[in-house]
Write a structure and sequence with these properties.
The structure holds two protein chains of two kinds. Chain A is mostly helical. Chain A has 19 helices and four strands. Helix content of chain A is about 65%, strand content about 0%. The longest helix of chain A has about 35 residues. Chain A is globular, with a radius of gyration of 23 Å. The model of chain A has no long low-confidence stretch (mean pLDDT about 90). By secondary structure, chain B is an alpha+beta fold. The chains are: A mainly alpha, B alpha+beta.
């Protein structure tokens, strides 16, 4: 499929999901969709809760931490003992401690950074029972936090922000499971592999080569991996693998799955706060940044790789090194941009082989904080944090103490929003500094020059933003990178979630100031521009020096920027 | 013998005729000198720590200073000096803002001379003590020429008082015991008569004391929005510390992997310069000056805000409760038409009405005389024939004149009709419809009769102040709802409300109804502002988010409100709202400007920072600055000078126009956002050119 047809199909499909999935999700979380109530009840009885028992933000956050900690611990344990567990036809041994920690953290935090090769490290049990389960659960947790923050805006004088257990149960039953199931059927129908039998051995009589082809339950795993913006594939090469991503249709389907929930949540937001226009405003901010980044990266990839050109090879089809010829240069770029801007992190082409500016497009996409549209849930709550900062500065300029959706943005909200916005750049920069200063860190990159710096920066940016996209070219499966990555992912996830929930609590307890002519409009073009400005300025100002030492200088070394 | 004649110094204690709002130019010399001295005092780290942004600059200055001593170079010293100046400029801005208040406080202090008080003992005899020894509950006597020693309520007598010392208004006011005009303020002067005052203020807590404290900003506390903004600025400062600090390991590593010669160490001086340029120093330096100047602008208009919080709230106000009388209307009804009945000539009616009003000293009466002159050129005549004025009484509800056998009366329709009937006259059929029409239009009908004959009706109209309608239109544009409060009946109220263009009205208003209205508005999440002067206004003043008490009002009202208008001009509420908005806009605009400036600074400093390791980065030097050192120095100098350049803006406030929120925002985003991105590119380049020309880099 050509780039434009792909984009057209995606725009139409995403437009429909934005409207209907968005509305449906609002109905689910406001308790209006109840056709699976019979399935909900056993869970509530098990936990000893009910939809009527609402939680304060502290209890909500507490439940979230306990829930995630349990999954982190149990998952780690299962990976460590996978050799003794069933569904292990290839007799994979225990996953090493540092790798197990990194992997489990990675899946609990919705990062899906993979320092392992799926088909060479994980048993089927681990793939299904640990990793795939996490892909559902971590996505649900992200959505729950986003919904809780939206409730902060939609409620007035409320001490509670919802019930965590109810939110994740409903998210799972009504949203993730049904969509992933249908998508899984389509993927398998298109030829994605779905089997519990071990590897296949094929002898090619023509050239006399015997191949061992890894197989597994990849088809359905692929569905939730994308739907939950997880990105951690069954195979090491992820969605570049033909058994995972067999056709152009599956390629588009994967992109759609990734973008559907993060985009649609803006409609959910609009519907829950009673103004679709407000949701559309956030959507516009996301789409504009996303569009610019796709254009930038696709253009960069459509040009010759300057390093290749310097070697005297002139390509007429763009930078094709490391790309699946089935997808081509620009469609691959679209795919990878989609995945870096959604915190999904899957790839269908090797980011490491992108032109320096093309790679910069991917890297900076993550540095903007994963809000365009970002991960499931995390995209919405993070962009709301940026919106609060935009409202604060913009609102002052019209001569009123700022308010967003009728909620006064005061010291407490600024503090929490500031904290949430601060965490990611702080963690990424400091850990990158640690990595480049230590011998263990310096040993990682396979390249030299600015590209080496880019590889480290990319790895820690990806994990800090819970993206999981790998630049490759970095030997990540070492005790050092496994551990620093785990710290990066945990902070990048929970150190933002907690202030976001506190923000929800603070906002929910507030009165709603009615809007008037003198109110700062938060649903028009000017506001969209301000939000984009805040996202770009915070991301740009914090990462500009680092990026200039990586991709920018690398590209400039080739003579000119374009 | 010749003697040098020195002009006599202003006698201390002499009340100045200026009041508080002594006009001073923005850069008064006296204030400038004081401010320079204060900026050094403010270098105290304990003062600096309160401003996280400037504290970081101060620490940075110390670091570059040590670096400059360890490895002396012109560059290191130049940066150190400019960073120090950055701190000084911030202190200077704050000192300038405070200086204006301090100067005003000094004027007030001179006025608060050690007055003597004549305290009444319980047995009725007097004793003379110093005013400062008075305590709450004492009673004192003041006679013509005495300065009232402290705040209190008159419990006996009536006096004319010169309050110019506080209000600047030279016309004396009448103060009497009982009612809403019983409060007197310490420092004002009794001009006539004798009064007994019960002191209501504790020692050191008088209105004058509080006023001095307020204008001086002695115990100024950060307002809620200022705190929120300080937090945001702290966040923007904290985030840049790791950005800058991590550059050192990044540069080391880059040098290592790029195979460049040298260790890649970046100069500490440049790193500190980068940090200072990135953190929001412009707004950080001017933030407190903006707040103080906002309060000061209120004082300039003779409004004293008891807290900065109230000024901020004023910007947020969505509902304005305005008393009709004095705010919306001129306060007095004025004759606007003569409507004859029963075939009487209009001129005859005017003539009789004028006669009946000659002795009527009320504003209404005078307005009838004026109207008769304007319409029919009927001059005031001297009555040579024997005559007798009939004054208005509450019983008759009429006034008039008996002359030449004529018995002219004017008064309320019912009373005059009864009087005419009693004198054997009949009521013309067209009278009642005319009276009714006038009532319905919001005016007051006065019926005029001569003995048994009804001559006609005078229409007394509530005159809406000129320009008030436009003010309300502006308010509406700003999203503020105006509600007129009046004791009139709903019919009259509706007519005036329509003429004045208010959004709503509360007729037959009682203090309770007023209170309910405020509470209803607040429950809907709106902020309400109101003015009041009476004791019965006090609860509503306290309930309102912005309560402006009139200085002529009672002590209770003044204590309940969070602002006092020394001129007692209720229309000023509108100014107060504008000042509140202006304060917030100035903060927002300078914050935006400050952040937008960073873009250009990056392009100046980043290429310079890594010049040794990656000379390729010079492509980013889009301003074509001369050299790494001149580039960094230019950025730092720009960063310091922009503070000075914006001091006048911070003190005066961003120009405020009463237009819709969207228009204000668009304008400010263009000027301070886009302008904030572009301006530094130009000025940093200019400074670089100058530095190169002077060989000073």
């Amino acid at each position: 499929m050509g780039l434009f047809l792909t984009i057209l199909v995606l725009v139409v499909a995403l437009g429909i999901t934005w409207r209907y999935l968005g509305s449906y999700m609002a109905n689910v979380f406001e308790g209006r969709v109840r056709y699976l109530a019979w399935a909900e009840r056993p869970f509530y009885r098990l936990i000893g809760t009910s939809p009527e028992q609402e939680q304060s933000w502290k209890r909500y956050a507490g439940s979230l931490i306990i829930f995630s900690a349990i999954f982190l611990g149990v998952g780690y344990l299962l990976l460590r003992i996978q050799g003794s567990l069933p569904l292990n036809p290839q007799h994979m041994g225990a996953v090493k401690p540092a790798l197990a920690l990194n992997t489990q953290t990675s899946f609990v935090t919705n990062t899906n950074w993979q320092n392992y090769g799926g088909e060479t490290t994980m048993s089927y049990f681990s793939q299904i029972g640990v990793l795939t389960v996490q892909q559902f659960v971590s996505a649900a947790v992200g959505i729950a936090v986003a919904i809780a923050l939206v409730r902060g805006f939609s409620r007035r004088n409320s001490p509670t922000i919802g019930n965590f257990w109810v939110d994740i149960t409903r998210c799972m039953l009504y949203i993730l499971l049904p969509i992933a199931f249908v998508a899984g059927l389509i993927l398998v129908g298109e030829g994605a592999v779905m089997t519990l039998a071990g590897t296949a051995t094929i002898h090619d009589a023509l050239n006399g080569v015997t191949q061992t082809i890894p197989r597994g339950p990849a088809g359905f795993m692929g569905a939730i991996m994308q739907l939950g913006t997880n990105g951690g594939g069954f195979f090491n090469v992820d969605l570049a693998h033909p058994l995972q991503n067999p056709t152009a249709i599956t390629n588009v389907l994967y992109i759609w799955l990734t973008l559907s929930i993060p985009f649609a949540l803006t409609y959910t937001f609009g519907k829950m706060v009673g103004s679709i226009r407000h949701g559309a405003a956030l959507l516009s901010a996301m789409v504009i940044i996303f569009g610019v980044w796709v254009g930038f990266t696709s253009y960069a990839e459509h040009t010759n790789n300057p390093a290749v050109a310097a070697a005297g090879v002139h390509s007429t089809v763009g930078n094709t090194e490391g790309k699946e010829v089935r997808f081509g240069d620009t469609s691959s770029a679209l795919f990878n941009v989609s995945m870096t801007q959604t915190s999904d992190g899957a790839i269908d082409s090797a980011s490491d082989s992108y032109t320096p500016v093309g790679g910069m497009g991917l890297l900076t996409g993550m540095m903007l904080g994963e809000v365009t549209p970002g991960g499931t849930g995390s995209g919405l709550y993070t962009i709301l944090v940026y919106a609060i900062i935009a409202v604060f500065i913009g609102g002052l300029m019209i001569g009123r103490t700022p308010e967003y959706l009728g909620k006064k943005i005061q010291a407490k909200e600024v503090k929490l929003a500031g904290l949430a916005a601060l965490v990611m750049p702080l963690v990424v920069l400091i850990l990158t500094a640690v990595a480049v200063s230590l011998h263990a860190g310096r040993a990682g990159p396979l390249n030299s020059g600015p590209h080496a710096f880019s590889e480290i920066l990319y790895a820690l940016t990806s994990q800090g933003n819970n993206n999981g996209s790998a630049f490759a070219g970095l030997t990540g499966n070492t005790a050092f990178y496994n551990t620093i990555g785990a710290v990066d992912m945990l902070l990048g996830r929970f150190a933002i979630m907690i202030p976001a929930l506190a923000l929800a609590g603070a906002l929910a307890g507030k009165q709603i100031v009615p809007a008037g002519l003198g109110t700062f409009r938060t649903d028009n073009g000017m506001f969209i521009g301000l939000v984009i400005g805040v996202i770009i300025i915070i991301g740009g100002l914090t990462f500009f020096p680092a990026v200039s030492l990586g991709p920018i200088v690398e590209q400039l070394s080739h003579g000119k920027f374009w | 013998m010749t003697a040098t004649v020195t002009p006599p110094a202003a006698a201390p204690g002499a009340p100045t005729p200026h009041g508080v709002a002594e006009a001073r130019s923005l850069f008064d010399r006296e204030i400038l000198v004081h401010s320079l001295r204060d900026s050094i005092v403010k270098l105290n780290p304990r003062v600096q720590i309160k401003n996280p942004v400037m504290f970081v600059v101060l620490v940075g200055t110390v670091i570059t200073f040590i670096e400059a001593i360890a490895k002396p170079s012109f560059f290191a010293w130049a940066i150190t000096v400019w960073l120090f100046l950055t701190v000084m400029f911030a202190n200077f801005a704050e000192a300038m803002a405070e200086g204006r208040g301090k100067a005003q406080a000094d004027t007030l202090r001179r006025m608060r001379s050690e007055t003597e008080a004549r305290r009444l003992r319980t047995d009725g005899t007097e004793e003379r003590i110093a005013a400062s020894e008075l305590s709450k509950g004492d009673t004192v006597v003041c006679e013509a020429g005495d300065i009232i020693p402290s705040d209190g309520d008159i419990i006996e007598g009536i006096a004319s008082v010169d309050e110019s010392a506080i209000t600047g208004e030279s016309a004396p006011v009448i103060r009497e015991s009982g009612g809403d005009r019983s409060a007197v303020t310490g420092g004002t002067k009794v001009l006539s008569d004798r009064i007994v005052v019960r002191i209501t203020a504790e020692r050191g807590q008088t209105f004058l004391d509080r006023m001095i404290g307020l204008v001086e900003g002695a115990n100024r506390q950060k307002t809620p929005n200022e705190i929120a903004l300080t937090i945001l600025l702290a966040v923007l400062t904290i985030v840049f510390i790791p950005v800058v600090v991590t550059l050192d390991p990044f540069a080391h590593y880059s040098a290592l992997v790029s195979g460049a010669t040298g260790s890649g160490t970046v100069s500490v001086v440049i790193l500190v310069s980068l940090l200072v340029c990135l953190i929001p120093t412009t707004i950080g330096a001017l933030l407190s000056a903006i707040g103080i100047a906002g309060m000061d602008r209120l004082v300039q208009r003779n409004v004293l805000a008891m807290s900065g919080r109230a000024v901020e709230a004023a910007g947020d106000v969505q509902t304005l409760l305005l008393d009709k009388t004095g705010t919306i209307t001129l306060g007095n009804r004025m004759a606007s038409a003569f409507v004859p009945v029963g075939g009487t000539d209009e001129r005859d009616l005017a003539s009789s009405a004028q006669l009946a009003s000659l002795a009527d000293d009320t504003p209404e009466g005078r307005s009838i005389v004026v109207l008769a002159k304007e319409k029919f050129d009927i001059r005031e005549r001297a009555l040579d024939t024997p005559h007798q004025f009939v004054p208005f009484t509450a019983q008759t509800r009429m006034s008039g004149l008996d002359v030449d056998g004529q018995k002219i009366r004017k008064g309320a329709a019912d009373s005059v009709k009864r009087w005419v009937t009693e004198h054997g006259g009949s009521i013309p059929a067209d009278l009642d419809p005319i009276v009714e029409r006038i009532s319905k239009s919001g005016s007051t009908p006065l019926v005029v009769a001569d003995g048994p004959t009804v001559l006609g009706v005078i229409e007394l109209k509530d005159v809406v102040k000129q320009g008030i309608r436009e003010k309300f239109d502006q308010m509406r544009q700003m999203g503020i709802r105006t509600v007129m409060i009046t004791g009139d009946n709903p019919l009259t109220a509706a007519a005036i409300a329509q003429e004045a263009g208010v959004d709503d009205f509360l007729a037959e208003a009682t203090p309770e109804a007023k209170m309910d209205l405020i509470k209803t508005e607040q429950e809907g999440g709106k902020l309400v502002a109101m003015t009041g002067d009476g004791t019965n206004d006090a609860p509503a003043l306290a309930q309102a988010d912005v309560g402006v008490a009139m200085n002529t009002g009672t002590t209770a009202a003044k204590e309940a409100g969070n602002m006092v208008d020394l001129d007692s001009n209720p229309t000023k509420l509108i100014d107060v709202v504008e000042i509140g908005k202006q304060l917030l806009i100035t903060r927002g605009a300078l914050t935006t400007f400050s952040i937008a400036n960073d873009v250009a600074k990056y392009f100046a400093i980043i290429p310079a920072l890594f010049a040794a390791t990656y000379p390729q980065l010079s492509t980013l030097n889009i301003m074509k600055l001369h050299s790494p050192t001149s580039a960094v120095l230019s950025a730092v100098i720009f960063n310091a000078l922009v503070i000075v350049a914006l001091i006048p803006l911070a003190l005066r406030g961003v120009r405020f126009r009463a237009v819709g929120a969207a228009a204000i925002l668009r304008r400010n985003v263009w000027i301070y956002g886009i302008g904030g991105i572009i301006a530094p590119f130009i000025f940093i380049k200019l400074i670089d050119l100058i530095l190169v020309a002077l060989h000073a880099y």
